[in-house]
Each structure stands twice: as C-alpha cells, then as structure tokens.
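Many introductory courses stop at the sequence. We go one step further.
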Amino acid sequence: MKYNSGIYKQQYKYKSFYPSLVNKNFTWNDSKINVLLESARGALGELNAFSKLIPDIDFL
C-alpha cells in the first residue's frame, strides 16, 4: 500500500493541506534527534506567539 501524506482542499481563495493521520509510533536510536525535536518545538511556539501579534495575517 502506498502512503498518502494528505490532501489539498480548496478554501475561500486558497488551498490548504490536510495531512493524513499517522497511526504508527516512531522510534529512533540517536538521542540527538530528541534535542532537534525540542528545538523545533520551541521555534514553532515562538512562531505561534508572533502570529497572535499580527493584526492582518492575510496581508503577510
């Protein structure tokens, strides 16, 4: 069976991507991946915080 990562849905004037659910536990042996994932999580949190401050997100 071929993996389908998701679908695009037509929204108002744009398309958005809806990812497929992942029903698999991921494991890895390299602990450096944990550090990278935590760093990425922090960066996403910062991005989310800044998005709350932008009055017109569509302008960007």
